Amino acid sequence: MKKPILALALATSAGLAVTSFSAQGKGQVPGAVDASRVAAGNYALDPAHTLVQWSLSHFGFNDYFGLFGDIEGTMTFDPADIEASSFDISIPITSVAVPSEGLRDHLLRPGKDGAEPDFFGPDPEAARFVSTSVRRVGDTSAVVTGQLTMNGNTGPVTMLVDFTGAGQNPMNEARTVGFHARATIDRTQWGIDYLAPVVGSEVDLDISAAFELQ
């Protein structure tokens, strides 16, 4: 009997949270592009709502897309001093998601007969991006430069970051800040050169991130 009672309690709690949110918000979106809503401090990524999309050319015919999730990281941020901000982000390679099960297996399988894997191999370390500079270029945008360590190699990456919203998350009451970032990297600089450039060397990254104030 305990499991049904627990399930009922959890469902009731979730229902009350949604009802409270609906009554309180009255259709208003909790987040807004309003810098006055952003508090200075230390933030942590919300891994359930942060994604990195990657895309590259498939033999010159079309672009192929995939995603990384379960991303963790921290941000130190002060809206009064944007250029003092810093980021430290960790992206688990094994979280890669693609529609093709065969391709996912190829991305994470070991090399044949003891050779190096074509892509990441079965037990890759998480990719890590650590910012080195933040330069404000607009009212809601900045250029963030840093070092990306991936596949045993480290190299510079520059991305354009746009502030997309801030406010209080109605589900957990966390003060949240959102960003959208874009960058392009040459995968061969990180030792991922399988079929390059027939399969595109340039990889476009499209990042949607939510940070919660700690």
UniProtKB/TrEMBL annotation:
The keyword Ion transport does not apply. SMART domains: YceI. Residues 1-25 form the signal peptide. It holds the Pfam family YceI. Residues 42-212 form the Lipid/polyisoprenoid-binding YceI-like domain. It comes from the Bacteria. Keywords: Signal. This is Lipid/polyisoprenoid-binding YceI-like domain-containing protein.
